[in-house]
Design goal:
The protein has 248 residues and is mainly beta. The protein has two domains: 81 residues, Immunoglobulin-like, CATH 2.60.40; 135 residues, Lipocalin (Beta Barrel). It has one helix and 18 strands. A hairpin with a 5-residue loop joins strand 14 and strand 15. The chain starts with a helix and ends with a strand.
Length: 248
C-alpha cells in the first residue's frame, strides 16, 4: 500500500513539473530595459524619422506607448515615427508591458532651401594691382547673395554666389552648431588642376529667425589670382560681408 502511495505522489510531481515547463513557453510582454535607436539622433525641423525598439537580447519589439518630454519640439506616432517640429532637445520614451526605454534627440532649425537677398561690405582690402570691380574708385559696396542649402540633420552642403564674382558658384559645406547657428565654408579653384583664380568663403555664420523666416549673418570673402604673366596665386582682394533678412 505504501509503495502505491509513493508511486502516485511521484507521478503527480512529474505532471506538475511538466505543466510548469509548458507555461514557460507562453509569450509574455518584455520586462526590463528596452533600447530605442534611430539612424540619426539629430533631426531637421519638419523632418520625420522612424524609431526602432529592441528588447533584452536584441529581439525586436513592436507596439507600445510613446511619450515625449516636449511635444512642441517633437512628437512620435503609435508606429514609432518621430516628427520634428521646431529646434530644441527632447527625450522620447516607449513603454510596453513592464519594460521601457528612452532616447535623447535634438531638433535643429530648417536651413534647407535657396536663400536670397542683399549684402553689404563694410570693409574691403585690395591689392595695388587688383582688377576687381569692387576695387575701382567709387565702386558699390552693396550687392546680392544667393545661398542654396541641402540639409540632413545638422549636416549642410550647398553653393553660394556673391555678386562680386557673379560667374563663380562656390561649393560650401558645414553644419548646424550647438547654438543652432548655420556654419559654412568653401573654396572654388578655377581651373581645378592649376588654378589662376581662387575664391574662398571663410567662416560663414548665420542665424534664422523662425518667425519671420529670414537668415542673417556674415562671412569673409577672399579672392586670389595668378598674374597675367603666369606664376603663383597672389592675394587680389578680400572683404568682410554682412547680410540681413535673406528669404527663401
Amino acid at each position: 500500500m505504501t509503495s502505491r502511495l509513493v508511486a502516485t505522489a511521484i507521478a503527480g510531481l512529474a505532471f506538475l513539473f511538466a505543466g510548469c515547463g509548458n507555461n514557460s513557453s507562453t509569450p509574455t510582454a518584455p520586462s526590463g530595459a528596452l533600447q530605442v535607436t534611430t539612424t540619426r539622433a539629430i533631426l531637421r525641423a519638419g523632418e520625420t524619422l522612424p524609431l526602432t525598439v529592441t528588447g533584452p537580447g536584441g529581439a525586436p519589439v513592436t507596439g507600445g506607448t510613446w511619450t515625449t518630454s516636449d511635444a512642441s519640439v517633437l512628437t512620435v506616432s503609435p508606429a514609432g515615427i518621430a516628427t520634428a517640429t521646431r529646434a530644441g532637445r527632447v527625450t522620447v520614451t516607449v513603454t510596453t508591458g513592464n519594460a521601457s526605454g528612452s532616447l535623447a534627440l535634438r531638433v535643429v532649425p530648417d536651413y534647407q532651401g535657396t536663400w536670397t537677398g542683399g549684402l553689404a561690405r563694410p570693409q574691403i582690402t585690395c591689392s595695388a594691382a587688383s582688377p576687381a570691380a569692387l576695387c575701382a574708385p567709387g565702386a558699390q559696396t552693396t550687392g546680392t547673395l544667393t545661398l542654396r542649402v541641402t540639409q540632413m540633420g545638422d549636416q549642410l552642403t550647398g553653393t553660394m554666389v556673391d555678386s562680386a564674382e557673379p560667374n563663380a558658384t562656390i561649393p560650401v559645406a558645414g553644419q548646424v552648431q550647438s547654438d543652432d547657428q548655420l556654419s559654412l565654408a568653401g573654396r572654388l579653384d578655377t581651373p581645378v588642376a592649376t588654378p589662376t583664380t581662387r575664391i574662398e568663403v571663410v567662416t560663414l555664420r548665420a542665424t534664422q529667425d523662425a518667425i519671420l523666416g529670414t537668415l542673417t549673418g556674415s562671412y569673409q570673402w577672399l579672392v586670389s589670382r595668378a598674374p597675367a604673366s603666369g606664376g603663383a596665386l597672389q592675394a587680389d582682394y578680400s572683404a568682410q560681408v554682412q547680410f540681413r533678412d535673406l528669404k527663401k
